[in-house]
Structures are given as structure tokens and as C-alpha cells.
Amino acid sequence: MKLTLVQGDITEQRVDAVVNAANSSLLGGGGVDGAIHRRGGPEILSECRKLRAGHYGKGLPAGQAVATTAGRLPARWVIHTVGPVHSASEDRSGLLASCYRESLRVADTLGAASVAFPAISTGLYGWPMDDAARIALETVRTAGAQVEDVRFVLFDAAAYAAFEARL
Ligand code: ADP
Hints:
binds adenosine-5'-diphosphate; Macro_dom-like; Macro_dom; O-acetyl-ADP-ribose deacetylase (Regulator of RNase III)
């Protein structure tokens, strides 16, 4: 598996699947989630609503992943995963690792060869970037996925530097 880092916007990535740092409602939010729905158009939200009406009536739990169309994005699928909110009193790193592992598992099921990840949980959910980078890279490296090309798309220079230091 090839791992690459880019600084940029995840909605612009030409890959088979982009991963969304979603919230458990699956009905949109800020950060990556907002950008994906804005750029991807209403088709993604309409599939998310169907998921909520079906198997995910209570929403998508943290650490799990599910795919929809990518609408107008230059990707084939969006894989929605819900990161844990960072906590100083409880170790939730297993859930963060699970986001990466489950997203890759879904990507393998789809037959996606290339996947772009944002730095899950490092925005609104408050996970320290350096620790998030460690968990992301370790988990993806050891997941044993068929995906050939994994790209981490870091929004700013500080996030890029944190991932670069861990790679
Ligand atoms: P979470 O709720 O899981 O913390 P956010 O979407 O708030 O997710 O943020 C996750 C990370 O993605 C943050 O580091 C944020 O700066 C970054 N980010 C925000 N918008 C984009 C984007 N369009 N492309 C890539 N990364 C983004």
C-alpha cells in the first residue's frame, strides 16, 4: 500500500473514495462534512437520509463507516465515518483507529483502489493533531487492506507537518 500526504481540500481529490468526517446524524455538519455536501450536491444527502430511514435509524455510531455515492465530487464514493469526540478523561483512541480500519474495510468491499482521508476528529471534535496523526498512520499501515493508494489530505500546513513527522 502506498501512503501519501497532500495539503489541500478533500473535496477536490480524484480518488475512488473520499472519507467524510461525518457526525452520527449523517445529515451534514461543519468542516469536512459541510464541504463534501456543498461540493457533492444533494444526491449524497438523499442517500444519507435513506440510510437513516433504514439500517441506521439511530444514526451511525462512532468508529463505524458506511458508503454513499459521491454525487458531483470527482470521486466515485463517499465513505462516511464518525470520529470520537476527544476526551481528556477517557481514552477513545480505539474508536478513532476503528474509523480508519472500518473505512478501509468498506473501501475493500467497494473495490476502491484509492482512498483519501481527512484528519478525522481533529476539527470540531478536538483531537490533538500529533496524536491523531500517529493513530491514523499506524492503523492504516497495519490494517491489511487491499486498497493500493491511501492519501491523507491535510487542510493546513500544521496538520501536514504533524503527519509528515509521523510518516
Ligand atoms: P471532526 O468533527 O471529525 O473533528 P472536522 O471536519 O471538524 O471533523 O475536521 C477534521 C479535520 O479536517 C480538521 O483538521 C479540519 O481542519 C480539516 N478540514 C476541514 N475542512 C477540510 C477540507 N475541505 N478538506 C480537508 N480537510 C478539511
